[in-house]
Every structure is written in structure tokens, then in C-alpha cells.
Protein 1
Amino acid sequence: MTTASDLSSHFRFVLVRTSHPGNIGSAARAMRTMGFTRMELVSPHRFPDREASALAAGADDVLDGAGVHQGLIEGLAGSNLAFGLSARRRGVNLPELTPHEAAMQAMAAAQRGEQVALVFGNERTGLENEELARCHAMVRIPSVEDFSSLNLSQAVQVMAYELRVALLGENIPTPPPLHDEPPADAAQMERFFEHLAQMLDDIDFHKGRAPTTIMLRLRKLFQRAQMDERELRMLHGIFADAQRMARLAKGEK
Ligand code: SAH
């Protein structure tokens, strides 16, 4: 039988461009109280830092083990499912979940053996659209409209608590696997989107229009599909053939 602590290891908390090291420490404490230890920091303004250690209040193992990365793609390496936490509805048009709904989906994914990321934004600016676009769904803590933004570490606490409750829940049926092949991870999806963009360019799909909006829509479509590695290989093959035909049509070899 899988226990809460086995499943906890399937989760990581990713803090993006955090300004205040104190918030990193408080977030580490919030995670640790709920049994989560994996923290990934993307371009933190200051880390390591005394203030982070002070506010971690003993959750030093979380800080010591925290990965530091330049970009979100690296912070998501090896993850199969990512939830972006945001106080505001953004222009990205992702499915929006409550923390409870996200926790239930995250649990099901963890039980299938997948790695799940919870992604949190900068204190002032939150997550950028580009960053949210790398997530499968957005999670909004249902705060009041006119004062919607929680302190970063308190948002981490709410999400960690919901996950903890879900992990402790009894009689959760083990979901059937979505795939018989390994699910694609974030890095494979990134290479896929690069190939897709290049192929659309090569077949002159954009015809002078800016590719940004269509690429965001395609991201949403393909993220939703939660593809496995074999499906990715098949699409890479199709794109490569389309590129070959485009070269032939242009009279290149
Ligand atoms: N003005 C920013 C607030 C940033 S607060 C914004 O609108 O997004 C720092 C981070 O805490 C956010 O990026 C988000 O990850 C998390 N957070 C704060 N309040 C939240 C809420 N109500 N729902 C979901 N996440 C929230």
C-alpha cells in the first residue's frame, strides 16, 4: 500500500523569481509542516540568505535541498503535471481549479507514478503568462475580489494543506493508468513545442502573422492531451516529414 509519505515525494513546490528570502524560508516551513520537502527556486533574488534560514524555523532540510535554476523549464525538469497558482485570472485561458480540485487531480497523478509541480509567482507581479502557459491548469485560492492576493508563503501553506488532506484521505481508488507508455515530462514537451514552432515556420503556416497567440493556443491544446512518449515520437515524425516536404517544395534537398 502507498502511504502519504511515499506519495509526498511526487510533489515539488516551485517558487519563481521570489524577491524576499524571508518568504522562501516561510514557504519551506509551510511545506515541511505538511510533509513536503522538495523545493525548486527559479531565479530567486537572494538565496541562500540568513533571513530565509531564520524564517524556515528548522525546516533547514528543505532549504538545503532546494534546487536553484535560471528558468522555469529547468525548475520543472522531470515533472509531468504542473499547476500554476495565481490570484488573478490571466489572459492564458487555462482551466481554473480550486486548491481542493487541484489536490485531487494531483493525487491521482501521483498515484499513477507521475511527478507533480505546484508553481508560485513573484510577490509583486505573480506568474507571467509565459510561465502559466507551461502549466496544465491554473489554481486560484478563492479570496475576495477586491483583496485577492495572499502572501506567497501563505498561498504555499493553503496548497500544501489541501495536498496533505488529499494524501491522508482514505478509500481513494487507485486510478487506472492513462498510458501504457511513460508520460511525457516538461523537457520533452518543451522540445516538442520547439519542433512544432519550427515546423509551422517551415511550412509557412503563419504567413507573416505573429506566432505568439497561436503558439499559446497550441500549447494549451497539447498540454491538455497529456501525451506519452510514444505519442510524442509519432508527432515528431509527422513534423519531420512536413519539414521534408516543405524543403522539397522549395526545391531544396
Ligand atoms: N499581484 C500578484 C500577487 C502575487 S502573490 C498576482 O496577481 O498574481 C505571490 C504568489 O502567491 C502568486 O504568484 C501566487 O502564486 C500565490 N498567490 C497569492 N494569492 C493567491 C490566490 N488568491 N490564489 C492563488 N495563488 C495565490
Note: DSSP finds eleven helices and seven strands in the chain.
Protein 2
Amino acid sequence: MSGTCVIGLQWGDEAKGKIVDLLTRDFDVVVRYQGGANAGHTVVVAGQVYKLHHIPSGVLSPGVMNVIGPGVVLNPPVALQEIDSLASRDIKLTDNLMISDRLHVVFPWHIAEDKVMNASPVGGGESIGTTNRGIGPCYRDKYGRSHAIRLGDLYRPDFRDKVERIVDFKQRVLAQLGSSELLVASEIFDEYSGHAERLRPFVADTTNYLLDAVEAGKRLLFEGAQGAMLDIDHGTFPFVTSSNSSGVGVAAGSGVPARWIKKVIGVVKGYTTRVGGGPFPTELTDEIGQRIRDLGHEYGTTTGRPRRCGWFDVVAVRYAARLSGVDSLAVMMLDVLSQLSEVKVCVAYDLDGQRIDRFPSHTEDLRRVQPVWEVLPGWQQDVRGAHRIEDLPAGARRYLDRVSELVGRPIGIVSVGPGREQTLFAS
Ligand code: GDP
Ligand code: IMO
Ligand code: MG
């Protein structure tokens, strides 16, 4: 038995989808356990690009069960559209997808609330810059309990009453917030009853399924969404998402106790990106940042927003790796760095004249830090066709060795392009 987790160690979009797809062949079950349609995981198979928001990235490998666990917040129309779009490309989801009846459902009022709340600054004059997918409001209702609806509730006789009661409340809240959203309970009930019927074949008690699976010795692969620095408890609050997106979230979100988790792979880009607001110490607002954005096609998978780009931040990644219990690193996008004449890494911060190597807990301290740089020479050689880590240019290997040394974790995987074949495994 083995439970392996794939966790992003930065601010999301580290290319977790690619790694999950690649590793899936060695697993029986792939599990999404937190986040929702805010995630956008890209998998490229034989030149075909698949963008997945809800469906686990194991879906492109036959013979694997894909589970959406209780910690996810599900947007039914997005999930159904994804299922249809995959089917139109001959990826059939029939007996290879299970969705937890315990998970919470995102409704139109959550999205309307997200849109109005997102306009307000939350610190340093910045707003969070959410994906507007209703994630925060849905998780808030889950913890508040009184206005929450779980997937299993859609099949119960009092579903209509629940919708009517909650719409009555939410309509008043939205009006107070200045939203012009008009909620019609009967229409929402009809629409979501329709979604529920279509989702019915997939809805199950995934918690017991996964507990049976681990006890039967099946191999589970956990697919993290977002990244550790966006974790609600441990990230750059309040510029975070509303779930535990670091390694600590796996057990809570899936229902599989931590004792079954044997291995954690931390995914990082060779540089850093961030979408939305919040401090970003190594951000490059100059032409090098734009160059990285262009070379890496750094535009959001879910929202299309340009991603903020910057150098690799050892302080942040070391913190994220320790927090997530990472065993080894997957370093992605090495091909993007290969075009640059020199490459910098941030090895420590200067905070009010003092050198620190611990990640600050308060976002306002993080805003004031100045990166302490180590500059490494670039290698300026095309690495996209490399097959082994040993074949990489000496400069690239030096860079990888230094990152590994500074973060304190070995490198298990290096990625030199989006394709499955553009992946190098450490021997
Ligand atoms: P995720 O959310 O962590 O799964 O990452 P995204 O899919 O949002 O963003 C990663 C992007 O990088 C996708 O477009 C991938 O196809 C692409 N990608 C993955 N690995 C590499 C790589 O090594 N080099 C390049 N150039 N692109 C990559
Ligand atoms: P994947 O799984 C990158 C960011 C948003 C915003 C903050 C809160 O593809 O790596 P939310 O809508 O979750 O309330 O937004 O989190 N964010 C992501 N950034 N990748 C993601 O997912 C993200 N999911 C949310 O941009 O800053
Ligand atoms: Mg993404």
C-alpha cells in the first residue's frame, strides 16, 4: 500500500496536473480532496491539451478510479461540462469517477457573493483577486453550517425547502452587499435537480471507498490543488484560498488518515508565479518578468489572467516543503529558464535591516522584506529534448543542485516541456 501526494509548493500552477498524469500509471486511485473549480490543471498527451478544473488528472489513464473527495467544493455545471467535453474527446467517464456525497455544492449565490466581495481591498490596498468561482463563500457556508448544501442533500425530499430558505436569506445579503444578482428559488431548484440527476451515477460515499481501498492495499495518488503558499491556515493570509492547499490538507479533505500517506512530492517551477493580489517578494516587474511570462505562457488556466512572474524563492519553498512533509521535488519549466543569461534565487530575506531565513507569518512583514539574491550563470542551451538529468548542460545541473541544497530536499523529477515525454526522472 502507498499513498503518495502531489503538492504545489508555491502559489499554484506549478504544473501539478502534468505530474499527476505522469505518475498515475503506478496507482489505482487518483484523489482530488480540496479546492474546486478555481483549479486549472493542464495535461498534455500526444500534443492534445486537456484543461481540468474538477476532474482528477488521472482521467487520461485508463483503468484508474478518479475520486472527488469531501473536502472539495463542487460546481455541478462546471463538472458536467468537463465530463461532456472529455466525452467528446473520447475520454469516457463511466465507472471510473466517484464524487463524494459529503462535499459542499457551489450555488449561484456563492459566485455572486465572491464577485462583490472580491472588489474590496483586504490589506495593503489590494483585493484578494479570487477566481470568482464562489470558493470562499461556499467554504464559509460550510463552516457556518446553517446555509450549506452538500451534494447528498440534492437527493433528499427537503432539497426544495432548503433552496427556498437559503435563497430568501442570500437575496437579502446580496442586496445589502450591492449586488444586482436576482435569485429565483424555483429556477435554481429545477436547474440543480437536473444537475443532480446527471451526476447521480457518480455520487458515492467516497470516504468508505478510500478507507476500504487503503486497507486492501490499493495505491492512492492525492492531487493537490492550488499551492502551499495559498493555504488558508499556513499561507500568505488573507491572500490565500479557502482550503488547506498545503500537504496538511490531504487527510482532512479525503478522509484518509495521515498514517497511510507514505510519500509527498513537492512541485515547483524553476521560478515563481502568482495570480491575484498579495505580497510576492521575488516578483519581477521588469522586462525579465515579461520574458518569463512569454516564454512560459504564464496566463491563468482558469481565468486567463496574466500570472505575475519572479525568481525562485528558497525561503518560501523551504517553508512549504517542511510544512507539507515533502520527500522530493519535481522542478518544472527548466526550459523556460534556459533562455536567460543569468538566473537568480532568493536565499534569504532582509526585514528591517535583519537577515531572516524563516518565512514571516504576517503578510505586512512579507511586504517589507527585500530578497537576498544568489546569482547563477545561465546555460542558454535548449533542454527540451533532454532525456536524462545527466544530459542537461552543466549550468542547469548546477542550478538544480543548488536549489535542492538550499531547499533541503532531493530532486526526483525535472520537467523540460509540457509533454509527458519531456520529463526526466532522477535515477
Ligand atoms: P497546475 O495548476 O499546477 O496543474 O498547473 P497549470 O496547468 O495551471 O500550469 C502549468 C502550465 O505549464 C501548463 O500549461 C502546462 O502544460 C505547462 N507545463 C508543464 N510543465 C512544463 C514544462 O516543463 N515546461 C513548459 N514550458 N511548460 C510546462
Ligand atoms: P491550481 O490548482 C493559482 C488564487 C487566486 C487568488 C486566490 C484566491 O490551478 O494551481 P479563490 O478563487 O481560490 O478564492 O482565489 O488563490 N488561486 C490560484 N492561483 N492556481 C490555482 O489553482 C489557484 N486557485 C486559486 O488567483 O489569488
Ligand atoms: Mg493551474
Note: The chain is about 30% helix and 20% strand.
